[in-house]
């Protein structure tokens, strides 16, 4: 007996047919599911050429439908597809309170800017942002340093996502070369991902995911919460 769904596509209910009666139409949320499956279903290399035709046949759709599904995904999905992985930003958590930090200044510098700098208080704050990679929740802990209107972050090295950050940074920043021996290798990171049920990543995928993480750890809601803490501290 022939298996009509060898790739375990998610069964979806069409909403009708397109105007030319050449393909099924689907609700926007189902179009997102169709789009995601193009990238997230693991396909043996020898089956790659068969996969997309099988997907289109299963849902009775055409190339135009796939193009539209990409547009809808970009418009309404709360996640991103990075190569063969789906990543989503989760909630943030502020761990503890603001800690005042003493800043050392050059006492020999007498200009007005240096005098103004001395009136600016610096703080550090322990934070956490959760991320989901292929629906698996992974925490990302970091120390936030706040000075005036600017900030910087220092990532911890405990969870696999944090180790991915240091792996990427160690590859690109020469001043960290002496410390890269303490970083996890690509093989070690993939072993840890596999233990969480997350498929293997190559260098390019890890680079892109960490870029996404760094762009997402602080959002507008977190900035608002931080501003309230700073106002209370002052």
Structure description:
The structure is a single chain. This protein is of the alpha+beta class and 234 residues long. Helices cover 41% and strands 23% of the residues. The protein contains 8 helices and 7 strands. A 5-stranded antiparallel β-sheet has the order 3-4-5-6-7. It has a two-stranded antiparallel sheet with strand order 1-2. The longest helix has 14 residues, at 63-76. The relative contact order is 0.11.
What is this structure, in a nutshell?
The chain is of the alpha+beta class and 234 residues long. It has 8 helices and 7 strands; from the N terminus they run ββαααββαβββαααα.
Question: What would the keywords be for this entry?
Answer:
234 residues, alpha+beta, five-stranded antiparallel beta sheet, 23% strand, 8 helices, single chain, two-stranded antiparallel ribbon
* Basic shape: elongated
Structural class: alpha+beta
Mean pLDDT comes to 90
Name the helicity range: 40-55%
The major sheet is characterized as: 5 strands, antiparallel
The radius of gyration over CA amounts to 24 Å
Order of helices and strands: EEHHHEEHEEEHHHH
How many β strands by DSSP?
7
Strand arrangement in the largest pleated sheet: 3-4-5-6-7
